[in-house]
Write a structure and sequence with these properties.
10-stranded mixed sheet; alpha/beta; 34 strands; extended; 52% helix; single chain
Length: 1513
């Protein structure tokens, strides 16, 4: 009962929490009622008519690649230059096509005597004529240029919008709207479609395309219309869902909008065009498509609604959100003990946790804390491998069969996460970061479908068990190797162990010294610590074999010898020799010169080819004149073939005509007199038919004026009578056309066939085309004989290696019309078969020779070059001589030798057993060397063995290779990670198979089929297929175990009833405010990864009093409810409630000089930079560039131009090949936008994209990185002394500086306009950054110098923290006869810092110490004392007391100002930096000159800048 009440209480709190979030969201995001109130908008009716602007119609799926709008970059041309005579008369603005040319009516000039003379423009007729002529040219230019300029303005607007979306992709989205609702203050489209703006830099061109989201109704706007009922909106939504209407659709969309307006209001009307008045009394709807950029928040409203519904239905509580909010139930006592978190392996190796990639103790701790508490807070300072850590954790969670959602406020932090996941696991993860993730989703679903369909769970579980066992072995081996490495350093303290018995190293050394002569007969090396490998009896037997086997016999038997069955039996050898002799008697050389040595031929193939050759040449045996002519034509080429192909075509067309007219001829029996002119008859028939078709009839009257017609009717008959009807004349015309074709065929046949001795056309009868058609196949066969039959055989013959050209050239010419064919026939039928037969004999001889050689080579293969067998050498010589009798004798002697091998194997086995532990000893016996050549043991083997063990162990301890151990550890580690990856993969698939239902598998297969049917989405049924696919996706989503997507995508795509996760991982959580609780609702457990030292929510523009009212209304009993004010990140919220905490300290991104600024600014120097900078070519790592710039409206133009020129210059240098670049404005967005506009102007779009250039503020770069970063400080000097310190409520500015200074991997440039010693006060973040960039090593050098004066590690730790905080510190400060541990100075004041509990502040000298302090206090000193026990227990809190004291005393963190800090700005310039600066200066001069020469073309670029700055950011 208590549990039930507790669950109800938590459910009530969660309900109130999400009610609060619902109202908070509505407060933040009121309904936008005016389209112009969005960040940006573009009406389609404002698009100019120009070729670079194309409107598509994706609503009509016509099979083409769909698009909504294409906008290319137009070519702008300057105004024609006016003649010199009139240039001075033109008023400013003549270069602008939008302006009218104005001239000065008159001018005053000085004449020769210095008097003023007034001159009118009209006075000089030639000047007027020149002006009028030039004006015509300009007018022609204006007519073309105005549309181009208008198109350029659209192009530049889209460029600005595209750049804004790139910077703020997670907070804005582009929408196409249609159906403008006009009522009172409302003027906004209601049918909305989210679209994507693509940029193709190689063109360059912008393309507006659809996303995977369907069109939607702006229901929030509709609900704000007075009198509109929710039921009406619901009906409209159902109508839209069924019809899938597109905003750019035609009639169907219009009819839908008409239904919508009638549903919304009985007085509503659909109008064709806006009437001009904005505040309509009655609701109006009209069509006018508009593109606009809006805030991306619309998914949260629906998500929170669904969560509130789900909360009332679900029985289990959403664990992730209850843990973050601090309202979760009591901890389960059965969870793992905290003792499991102790002594974690620093290499991240643990039996319980499966990490497939390089790991550390923090990652182990993270996984164990998640298991224990269900929630973990991970602080990940910049570059500390958060993505790598999450990827590792995903593998572990997959192995447990858990469903995981990885999310973040922005997509940047998630961009490479899927790639970081172990390769075999990637298809279990779907990363949805942009609008086009279909390919990756299909790949994952394909893989899941395929694997699940064939997965054998029992088999996989057996494999899992084997992998687990192997992994345990590897972990054990790794630990053993590491232990060996440790032991290598402890050798002087370890006992010598032999056969389980221990001796002290000194005892072993004494034994060796004493018994060198008596027991030193066993040679080394031996296996360390092993017992004697052979018993005394076995050793005696081994030494006895020295006498049983002679060295020569052992030598032969020790060699690799062929088995008896590998040798040819003497009888078979005799047969082989005889066959070779018989073949050698034939003429093997007959015409061998005609065969290539490398031809691909076999005996069977040559025999088969000979038969095919005789069959093919048979067609030439009978000398048929016209057949030879056809064959010759086929041989001669396409021109001659065409003659015969034309004849075939004529036969076929005549035959087809006969078939086509057969019905008419049979029905009407048309006849003409034999002597009639067919062409004239055909013409008359056409005229008559035209006459009849015009609606007229033939009559005596009409024939009176058509004498030719009348004469024709006398000789034309249809069914024996005069033709009268249209059908009669059509039959006559068909009859005439058939006769004409037959006549053509007859003439052609007689000329082409009969004249060559072929059949006469007359033989073919009344329907000659029928019989002629039977000869077509014969003609075609002859035509194709040469290219298809003969050339195929000729090519095969060549492929067989026969030199046909050479052979054919030898054949005598035949003087005949068809001499070539006859020559070919003679060449093939006479001597070629004999030549091929001779080649067959040669091949047979080669085959038998190979058998002979193979036998020889088999024996030779057993010969060892450095130690050949004498017996095998003898056998080889006999084979070479082909001496059959000698071969038989040696063969049987060899068999006798093999029979003696058993004794040798016994000896060899004992030697091998001995060699396993004592290879040197075994070798000596094998060689019968010295005392080891006898047949008795040389001495006591037990004592001799102990002696040798001692000698080698003592030697080994002095020469143990730690390098080798390290390499082995590395190899085992690699294998461990591979096995772990395989284990995770198999466990993940098995768990997925067990969890996936039949319905989910059906949905997976169905979705895939729909996607295949959809293709590119260009078919007419594409919208319906896409809608059905979305329904299937609900089930498919739940089958995919890992989803990676930003929060905006989560709330849009997932439903809490259908999509629940075991673990939700939030990356970059410091950027997300309490609205992120809507995403955490989807999970049971939660990992919050972030950094409270990086940029966090600032709640700009939020009505704080309204928020407070909401908090007081809904959250009074929620722990820490005042933190739900919109300014607190989800990371900070989790920090108040999570028990599990992990801090990542290993930094991998930046080279050390770059990250140290952030390290000391925000992390007390606790970050450990691990990046190896040896391969970085871009040096120095930090570069300071100062300009004489000023700030105006948060834009410093000189800094902007300097940054742009330096970046473009750097790109040109080979050291920056393939480097990526970023630009961060430390103050506001306007400076970044200005720099971006310059870079887009002066860099080709392809290069801009290739270098992944991004310009933005620190917040927009959080979670991102580049090889090179340029920082622009923006602020300029005031001219009235130092600037005020930056206001920093909530340390937001400090966080921005931290993020900005930690984005560069290889090099950080700082461009500023300030003198840090004149324009900035001590403790100013800007000053600190400038000084760090000027010399990034100064602080560390100072600390190293000062730490030498500190008397203990305690004092060194305190000193380091004060220095990192930016204070000026002097250790061991001397005051007369007294010394102070350290003194902090600043602002003309001093504070004494004493460290209690250290070496000089002990209990024994406490009285003396107190007296010293009293004296100094009388002299005006102020002390602060730090207890050692307090400091080591909680250094942060202890130092906070010191910082508070310093702040109270007015001592600012002035840094190391009293000393020169190493590298001044001029000293840091390397040859590379100077090269870049020189080139940048050249670029700036070129740009300035270009701007002057381009004149008003620059107007469009300035408008682009204004457009970007005017975006409601």
């Amino acid at each position: 009962m208590e549990d039930v009440n507790q669950t109800k209480a938590i459910r009530d709190k969660l309900t109130r929490l999400f009610r609060f979030l619902q109202e908070m969201h509505q407060l933040r995001n009121p309904v936008t009622k005016q389209v112009q109130n969005h960040f940006w908008h573009l009406w389609f009716h404002d698009l100019p008519d120009h070729p670079v602007i194309q409107l598509g119609n994706p609503a009509n799926h016509d099979g083409h690649e769909p698009f909504i709008l294409k906008v290319g970059k137009p070519d702008l041309t300057p105004c024609p230059e006016p003649p010199q005579e009139i240039q001075s008369w033109l008023q400013n603005g003549w270069q602008n096509p939008e302006k009218t040319v104005q001239v000065f009516e008159s001018k005053t000039r000085m004449d020769e005597d210095g008097s003023e003379v007034k001159e009118n423009f009209q006075d000089d007729e030639s000047r007027v004529a020149l002006f009028e002529e030039w004006l015509k040219q300009r007018n022609a230019w204006v007519e073309k240029e105005r549309p181009a300029r208008a198109a350029m303005r659209i192009y530049e607007k889209l460029y600005g919008v595209y750049a804004h979306i790139e910077r703020e992709n997670e907070t804005v989205e582009l929408v196409l709207g249609e159906g403008i609702l006009k009522w009172k203050e409302i003027f906004h489209p209601i049918l909305l479609l989210r679209v994507e703006l693509q940029f193709h830099p190689e063109v360059p061109e912008f393309i507006l395309v659809e996303t995977d989201r369907p069109a939607e109704l702006y229901t929030a706007l509709l609900r704000s219309v007075g009198g509109v009922e929710q039921s009406a909106i619901s009906r409209c939504l159902r109508d839209l869902e069924q019809g899938l209407y597109h905003p750019l659709g035609d009639v169907e969309t219009e009819e839908f909008l008409k239904r919508v307006v009638s549903q919304l209001s009985p007085h509503g009307e659909f109008v064709k065009k806006e009437n001009g008045t904005r505040n309509a009394e009655f609701l109006q709807l009209f069509r006018d498509p508009v593109l606009f950029l809006r805030k991306r928040t619309h998914g949260y409203a629906g998500a929170i609604d669904r969560i509130l519904q789900d909360l009332q239905q679900r029985e289990d509580l959403p664990g992730a959100v209850t843990r973050v909010a601090g309202i979760h139930p009591k901890q389960d006592e059965t969870q793992p003990s905290s003792s499991l978190l102790r002594d974690l392996d620093i290499n991240g190796e643990d039996e319980r946790i499966l990490l497939s990639k390089e790991a550390n103790a923090e990652q182990l701790k993270m996984a164990l804390l998640l298991e224990r508490y269900g929630s973990v807070l991970v602080q990940g300072p910049p570059g500390t491998g958060k993505t790598h850590t999450i990827a590792n954790l995903i593998g572990h969670l997959l192995a447990q069969g858990k469903k995981v959602l990885v999310t973040s406020h922005t997509a940047k932090a998630l961009t490479v996460l899927r790639e970081k996941v172990a390769k075999p696991l990637q298809n279990l993860c779907v990363s949805v970061l942009d609008s086009d993730n279909k390919e990756q989703l299909e790949q994952s679903i394909d893989t899941i479908n395929e694997r699940l369909s064939v997965l054998d769970i029992p088999h996989e579980e057996r494999a899992i068990q084997k992998l687990e066992e192997e992994r345990k072995r590897l972990l054990q081996q790794l630990r053993e190797k590491r232990e060996q490495l440790k032991l290598a350093r402890m050798d002087e303290y370890r006992s010598v162990v032999v056969a389980g018995k221990e001796w002290h190293p000194s005892e072993a050394a004494e034994f060796v010294r004493q018994y060198q002569e008596e027991h030193g007969w066993i040679p080394g090396p031996v296996e360390a610590g092993a017992p004697l490998p052979l018993s005394g009896e076995e050793l005696a037997e081994l030494y006895q074999t020295n006498r049983v086997l002679s060295p020569d016999e052992e030598k032969e038997l020790d060699l690799s010898l062929p088995r008896p069955d590998e040798l040819v039996h003497p009888n078979d050898f005799r047969v082989l020799v005889e066959e070779l002799e018989a073949l050698s008697q034939t003429d093997l050389a007959y015409r061998s010169d005609l065969w290539e040595p490398t031809g691909e031929r076999s005996i069977e193939e040559l025999r088969r080819f000979n038969g095919e050759l005789r069959q093919a040449i048979a067609v030439l045996e009978e000398e048929n004149h016209w057949k030879f002519a056809v064959i010759t034509a086929g041989q001669s080429g396409e021109e001659q073939r065409t003659i015969w192909q034309d004849l075939i075509a004529l036969i076929e067309s005549t035959y087809e005509k006969m078939l086509a007219t057969q019905k008419e001829l049979l029905e009407y029996g048309p006849r003409l007199s034999a002597d009639i002119d067919l062409r004239k008859a055909k013409s008359i028939l056409s005229d008559i038919l035209d006459y009849i078709n015009s609606g007229k009839k033939l009559s005596s009257f009409s024939l009176f004026f058509k004498r030719e017609w009348k004469q024709f009717l006398r000789v034309a008959k249809v069914n024996g009578t005069v033709p009268e009807q249209k059908e009669h004349f059509e039959a006559l015309r068909s009859y005439v056309e058939l006769i004409e074709l037959r006549e053509r065929l007859r003439n052609r046949w007689e000329r082409q066939v009969t004249s060559l001795g072929g059949p006469s056309f007359a033989e073919f009868g009344d329907e000659p085309e029928k019989k002629a058609r039977h000869l077509i196949e014969e003609i075609r066969k002859w035509l194709d004989w040469y290219p298809d039959t003969w050339l195929t055989l000729e090519n095969r013959l060549k492929k067989l290696g026969f030199q046909w050209e050479k052979y054919f050239a030898e054949q005598p010419s035949v003087v005949h019309e068809f001499g070539d064919l006859l020559r070919l026939r003679n060449a093939v039928s006479k001597s070629l078969p004999t030549i091929i037969e001779a080649e067959i004999h040669r091949l047979m001889y080669e085959q038998k020779t190979r058998e002979y050689q193979n036998h020889l080579q088999t024996i030779q293969s057993y010969l060892q070059e450095d130690n050949p067998s004498d017996l095998l050498l003898q056998l080889i010589e006999i084979i070479k001589k082909k001496a059959c009798d000698e071969y038989e004798a040696v063969y049987f002697r060899y068999i006798d030798l093999i029979r003696k091998s058993e004794i040798f194997r016994k000896r060899k086995a004992l030697l091998a057993k001995l060699a396993a532990a004592a290879p040197g000893w075994a070798k000596k016996i094998e060689l019968r060397d010295g005392v080891h050549g006898g047949h008795v043991l040389p001495g006591d083997p037990e004592q001799a063995w102990l002696f040798r063990q001692f000698v080698e162990e003592l030697d080994r301890r002095h020469s143990r290779s730690m390098d080798r151990l390290q390499e082995e550890i590395h190899q085992y580690g690699n294998r461990l990670r591979q096995v772990t990856t395989d284990l995770i993969e198999k466990k993940a698939w098995v768990e997925l198979a067990k969890r996936t239902s039949y319905e989910q598998r059906q949905a997976l297969a169905g979705w895939k089929q729909l996607m295949r049917k959809l293709g590119k989405g260009t078919g007419k049924r594409a919208p319906q297929i896409l809608a059905e696919a979305r329904k299937k996706m609900l089930d498919c989503q739940s089958a995919v175990p890992v989803w990676i997507m930003p929060m905006s995508r989560v709330v849009e795509n997932f439903d809490p009833q259908n999509n629940r996760f075991d673990v939700v991982i939030v990356d970059e959580a410091s950027q997300s405010d309490v609205m992120a609780l809507a995403v955490l609702y989807f999970g049971k457990q939660v990992v919050v990864v972030g950094d409270d030292q990086q940029v966090s929510p600032d709640a700009v523009g939020q009505e704080l009093d309204q928020v407070q009212k909401l908090i007081d209304t809904w959250l009074t009993d929620i722990p820490n409810h005042q933190l739900y004010d919109g300014k607190t990140s989800i990371y900070d919220l989790a920090k108040t409630s999570f028990e599990g905490f992990v801090q990542l300290r290993e930094h991998f991104r930046c080279v050390s000089p770059i990250i140290q600024f952030s390290n000391y600014l925000s992390y007390n120097g606790e970050i450990k930079p691990l990046r190896d900078a040896s391969s970085v070519r871009t040096r120095p790592f930090t570069v300071e560039v100062r300009v004489e710039g000023t700030e105006y409206n948060k834009v410093n133009e000189k800094e902007a131009v300097m940054v742009a020129s330096l970046l473009v210059a750097a790109i040109e240098q080979p050291e920056y090949q393939d480097a990526t670049f970023g630009v961060i404005s430390l103050i506001g967005d306007q400076q970044a936008i200005r720099i971006e506009s310059l870079l887009r102007k002066y860099l080709p779009p392809v290069e801009y994209n290739k270098r992944k250039i991004r310009c933005g503020n620190p917040s927009q770069f959080q979670g991102d990185e580049r090889d090179v970063i340029f920082l622009s400080m923006v602020h300029g000097p005031s001219g009235n002394g130092p600037l005020r310190r930056l206001a920093d409520p909530g340390e937001q500015m400090k966080k921005r500086f931290n993020v900005a200074a930690s984005r560069a991997r290889n090099q950080l440039w700082l461009v500023h306009s300030l003198d840090p010693n004149i324009d900035l006060k001590d403790g100013d973040l800007r000053k600190r950054l400038i000084l760090h960039v000027r010399n990034p090593y100064a602080l560390e050098e100072k600390m190293e110098r000062l730490e030498k004066h500190a008397e203990s590690p305690f004092e060194q730790s305190v000193l380091k923290r004060l220095l990192q905080a930016g204070y000026r510190v002097k250790p061991q400060y001397q005051v007369g006869a007294y010394r102070i541990d350290m003194v902090v100075e600043g602002g003309g004041k001093r504070l004494a810092v004493e460290c209690d509990g250290d070496r000089w502040h002990t209990l024994d000298n406490l009285d003396e110490d107190m007296a010293r302090q009293a004296v100094l206090e009388r002299l005006g000193w102020t002390f602060v004392r730090i207890r050692g026990s307090a400091f080591y227990r909680d250094p942060e809190q202890t130092m906070r007391t010191v910082y508070d004291k310093l702040e109270k005393m007015g001592i600012p963190p002035e840094g190391m100002l009293e000393e020169k800090t190493g590298i001044e700005s001029g000293e840091q310039d390397t040859e590379l930096v100077n090269r870049i600066k020189r080139r940048a200066a050249e670029l700036r001069r070129e740009w300035e000159e270009s701007d002057r020469s381009e004149g008003t073309i620059k107007v469009a670029e300035e408008e682009q800048m204004e457009e970007q700055l005017s975006l409601k950011i």
